[in-house]
Amino acid sequence: MPSQNQPQRDCDIVIFGATGFTGRLVAEYLADQAGGGNGGAEPMRWAIAGRHSEKLEQLKNTLEQRNPACSSVGVIQAELHDWASLVFMAQRARVVLTTVGPFIKDGDRLVHACITGGADYVDITGEPEFVDSVINQFYAQARESGRRIVNCCGFDSIPHDLGALYTVEQLPEGVPIEIEGFVRSRGSVSGGTWQSAITAMARLRASRRQTVAHRAGNTADRSSTESSSGRRVYAIKPRLRYHRDLKGWVFPLPTIDGSIVRRSARGIERYGPSFGYAHYGVSRALHRIAMLGAGLGVVFALAQLGPTRNFLLERKKSGQGPDARERASNWFEVKFVGKADNTKVITRVSGGDPGYGETAKMAAEAALCLAFDRDRLPDVAGVLTPAIAMGDVLIERLQKAGLRFEVLQTSQ
Ligand SMILES: NC(=O)c1ccc[n+]([C@@H]2O[C@H](COP(=O)([O-])OP(=O)(O)OC[C@H]3O[C@@H](n4cnc5c(N)ncnc54)[C@H](OP(=O)(O)O)[C@@H]3O)[C@@H](O)[C@H]2O)c1
After folding, report:
1. Nearest 5 degrees, angle CA 368-CA 55-CA 102?
2. Average pLDDT for residues 179-195, to the nearest whole number?
3. 23 closest CA partner among 69, 66, 63
4. 3 found inside a domain
5. Which of 7, 130, 188, 297 could serve as a FRET partner for 312 with CA atoms 20 to 30 Å apart?
6. How far does the centroid of ligand 1 lie from the alpha carbon of residue 53, in Å?
7. Could you give the percent of the chain with pLDDT greater than 70?
């Protein structure tokens, strides 16, 4: 029962950061669901939230023009540095979906507020330091309170995490499994992603400290080799090589995705008694990889010093991003090669604009899944990966929403 001062939980989903570039796309995606939370079967109550009420009202008008049913969409003013506003928002929501980044800049306050206010939580971070810090601070609290805190529900890391799960499900049970994931994409970067990437590059030491604390911690999904049940989960050492089947050069991709896949493997028995994963990018030409490496090296070096870092941060501003035409020409595919016993399987997850169009879809479907599919989801709580929290139920939703999960080849 809510206390006298506690607001009613009147929203299935609240989008926090709705006036930002990605948040707006998530809001438009929900607006297009024709008011129904479960394929139209159940009415959906939702709200947009952010720090500027004028911007929120403008967004609400745009949504109403898109779909008149959006006249019932709520508007909540909330600020990361105003604790009471965060708790109030969480108390009104069953699920808070946040696109407010860089997440390492106080994003943990919202996780805390969701646990306090009794809401589940979904974000689109790809920042390893933030994810480790959320696990280190809130794993036990989230578990005890029955909350589901699910990071990385955008392109980082849903296609990789759910693609690996999908691949595991095509292989025999109860035997050691190894999977390699190969990502190809065409995409562009928003101001928010740029700010987050530069911030992460400047904080590599702090990030390492969080990872070390996560490994040492007593959480079921800790990053060490042994999972809590004694099963073995490890990183296959990736190496630069020409891949004949993929007709391209494959190179180690040091994004958060590999560690998310391995956390899922620690939490789900189906990945077998021993599970190894390696994560790669794919390029047709070796010189492109060299150019990419050199470019990243320069940006990384510039991100280490205050003045040059500020120069970089000024290059792309918050709120900017690829327009609809550019997004329409973007695409991604992740191929997985899985081996177990004598079976080999090749699978593929693919879709459109990875960074924004599909990220908005993935995050929105993850929030819808937590809000409306509760009866079909695993009975788990804590700081969770998408595969652990939602697994096949989310794969089903994403397939219906147009993402492709396919088996390309099976051989024995
Ligand atoms: N994992 C993925 O695949 C993926 C894909 C896309 C984006 N992302 C991440 O998502 C984040 C957002 O990206 P974006 O391009 O959408 O960024 P953006 O356009 O800059 O939007 C950021 C939003 O955060 C809000 N905000 C900032 N500080 C706030 C505060 N203190 N309190 C309340 N709201 C605050 C901003 O509010 P105002 O509108 O009032 O300024 C804005 O709505 C970035 O961290 C990016 O890296 C990840």
Report:
1. 65
2. 94
3. 63
4. no
5. 130
6. 16
7. 94
Ligand 1 neighbour 157 (Cβ under 6 A): no
Please tell me the distance from the alpha carbon of residue 97 to that of residue 16, in angstroms, as a whole number.
Answer: 6
| Average pLDDT score, the chain | 93
How many distinct structural domains can be found in the chain? Answer: 2
My answer on whether 293 and 251 are in the same domain is: yes
**Is the domain of 32 the same as that of 108?**
yes
CB 212 within 8 A of CB 367: no
* Owning domain of residue 338: 158-354+404-411
DSSP state of 202: H
Q: What is the pLDDT of residue 1?
A: 47
Q: Is 128 touching ligand 1 by the criterion CB < 6 Å?
A: no
Mutate-to-test residue for ligand 1 from 21, 161, 314, highest number of ligand atoms within 8 A of CB: 21
Asked if 329 and 203 sit in the same domain, the reply is yes
Residue 309 located in a structural domain = yes
Ligand 1 and 319: CB distance under 6 A: yes
The mean per-residue pLDDT over the stretch 351-355 comes to: 95
Report pLDDT for 230: 81
